[in-house]
Specification:
It is a single chain. By secondary structure, this protein is α+β, with helices and mostly antiparallel strands. It has 13 helices and 15 strands. Helix 1 packs across helix 2, helix 1 packs across helix 4 and helix 5 packs across helix 11. The chain is elongated and about 70 Å long. The strands form 5 sheets. It has a 5-stranded mixed sheet, sandwiched between helices. Strands 10-7-11 form a 3-stranded antiparallel sheet. A 3-stranded antiparallel sheet has the order 13-14-15, with no helix packed on it. About 40% of the residues lie in helices and about 20% in strands. It starts with a helix and ends with a helix.
């Protein structure tokens, strides 16, 4: 088995055809076919299923391709470290639920490592596909949330796929609504106040289980439901229909626009947002840098005039290291002096999650209102 053979099978899997793969690899189709057959014979498996409709990875081939991608990525890391060059075209993929901070970190990664040639992917997709992408090593990192309701089911699936979850931060539930929404001026919004408005959520396809929902309170019955696949459609419907969705409260005006705001929801539940990785994988330099970029947007800094300035990863002490730790922890590199990670400002409104310089919640009065509301709700349930 050679690295060249691994590159061949990964290219065939990515393109879906021998013809296109051969063209991109600049070799003849017979040579490519023979190389794949030799690899399959050596490994004792059929990496691909072949039919009149074309070629596609087999079940065992999907597992093999996951490891092949990881080997190729680590080979690039070795070339980068010891050959003194850029290791060729850089590639990286992350799969994520629909979070603006995940996109921001991806942008920063490209600004730092995007040279003349690169192949980076970000997949805003369904929860089950995020888990599958990381399990098959199509993506190095997956970003999703857990709470008391879904964690037992998700953790069971993660363990079955040799994956592990690492918490990034804990958020209180908020709602995204239009700036012109009738409830937009509220300091806090209750579920009762939202009953008259359409509820928008991301549909989960054939795996449309409550446990795979991106939104907390997925089991709550609502009179008006709209499911969408992409963030742009969801935001357009929030504005056009005075709809709402439940979220973490982290919002970026540059990505989401000025017409969408985040308002705390009167509930004492938590959203534990984090990332998943494969237990047997060592994160690449790009993967480690991406996690460092995430820290830029999830580490609280100064709050001034409604703007939340996020600390850099270096200031937070969460990024860039020299020595590897346990298996599954990446090697990472020192930031280059010539490359500074951008520091953006994330816009927030009435967030539970903001902290003052003294470490106290910036919206203590709102927390008290939420607590009072929840006491009233529980008292009503008892009576």
């Amino acid at each position: 088995m050679t690295l060249q053979q691994l590159r061949y099978v990964v290219m065939v899997a990515d393109t879906g055809t021998i013809t296109e793969a051969a063209n991109r690899l600049y070799i003849s189709q017979p040579s490519l076919t023979n190389a794949i057959h030799e690899l399959e014979k050596e490994m004792g498996i059929n990496i691909f299923n072949r039919s009149n409709k074309g070629i596609s990875p087999s079940i065992e081939g999907e597992v093999f391709l996951g490891y092949a991608r990881q080997v190729l990525e680590q080979a690039k890391v070795l070339e980068d470290k010891y050959k003194g060059d850029d290791g060729g075209k850089k590639s990286f993929c992350v799969s994520t639920q629909h979070y603006s901070f995940a996109v921001n970190a991806f942008v920063d990664l490209i600004k730092r490592y995007g040279q003349d040639e690169y192949d980076f992917s970000i997949r805003e997709t369904q929860t089950y596909e995020i888990i599958e992408d990381v399990a098959r090593m199509r993506s190095e990192i997956g970003i999703l949330f857990m709470n008391d309701f879904n964690e037992k089911v998700l953790n069971k699936i993660l363990r079955a796929n040799d994956l592990e979850f690492h918490e990034l931060f804990v958020a209180k539930p908020h709602v995204f609504i239009s700036r012109k929404h009738p409830l937009a001026k509220n300091d806090i919004i209750t579920n009762e106040e939202l009953e008259a408005y359409p509820y928008l959520s991301f549909e989960q396809g054939e795996h449309n289980s409550f446990y795979f929902s991106e939104e907390i309170f997925s089991t709550t019955e609502r009179k008006k439901n709209i499911r969408v696949r992409d963030r742009a459609t969801l935001f357009n419907l929030l504005i056009g229909l005075n709809g709402y969705t439940v979220c973490s409260g982290v919002i970026d005006e540059n990505l989401n626009g000025k017409d969408i705001i985040s308002v705390p929801l009167a509930d004492d539940s938590d959203m534990r947002i984090g990332y998943i990785v494969h237990r047997k994988a060592i994160l690449s330099r790009l993967g480690n840098t991406y996690l460092g970029a995430l820290a830029n947007y999830l580490t609280a800094g100064d709050t001034k005039g409604g703007e939340h300035t996020v600390s850099t990863a270096e200031e937070a002490g969460l990024a860039y290291c020299d020595e590897p730790e346990d298996v599954g922890t990446a090697y990472c590199d020192e930031p280059e002096d010539s490359v500074k990670t951008p520091q953006r400002k994330l816009q927030h409104r009435g967030r539970f999650n903001e902290m003052r310089d003294d470490g106290e919640p910036a919206c203590g009065d709102v927390r008290e209102k939420a607590a009072e509301h929840m006491k009233m709700v529980k008292a009503t349930e008892v009576t």
